[in-house]
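With this grant's support, we have paired protein sequences with backbone structure tokens. One protein thus recorded is set out beneath this paragraph:

_____
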Amino acid sequence: MTTLFLSWAIVIIAVFSIVFFWVRKNRLKAAGQSQVEEMNRFLADLKEEFSSELTPSGPLPDYQFPKEELPHSYGIDRLVLLARDPYWLYAYWEVTATKMAEFSSIHGAWEASWPVLRVYDVTGITFNGQNANQYIDIGINDQANNWHINTGEPDRTFCVDLGRQFPDGRFITLLRSNMVTTPRASLSDREDEEWMWIEGIYRSIRHQYGISSPLFAEEIAERARIIPLGVSSPGHWPEY
């Protein structure tokens, strides 16, 4: 009887153990599946969120670069003169409000005078404002801040004053330009120029570098650039 009871007890314990482990296994499996599903949902939501941020809702507009414009003034009193060609000069200037107020406080109302460009021929002299070879006056308007000046004089040196002229003939200088010299309109009349032959250049630097040195070729090219195009010099066309 005792043996039978022990046998049934062992069977019952075995059955309960099997049931217990089976239930626990299913619970762990269900929990794992739940965690996997939760992670998949999280990744899907994350993907959707980033996709909506990175994907434009419509076509991107063309990028408009900011338009940078040069200022009309720099707040500096100045008059700059340039030689445009043998016959023309170009001047540009700026007169600040401070300069205008200073003029008005000394010479009276600004509107009582008019603007004039006085163009001096200062060729061959040390100009002091009073000893120009000659000058011409060009009447301009108060809105102008640049002017093309026809001198008709190649190879001459010029300086320009911007000033105000009064009805009684007084001319008050506001600004004075730099000096410029117009280029020649013809070939130079100098006959004492001596041009070195290409062979002379070759001989003068050959001994410095050696005929096979790369520096020799560079020096030849550099000196060839010094000779201006369109100017005849002694020599002959190379033979090919």
Summary: Residues 78-181 form a domain with the Immunoglobulin-like fold (CATH 2.60.40.10).
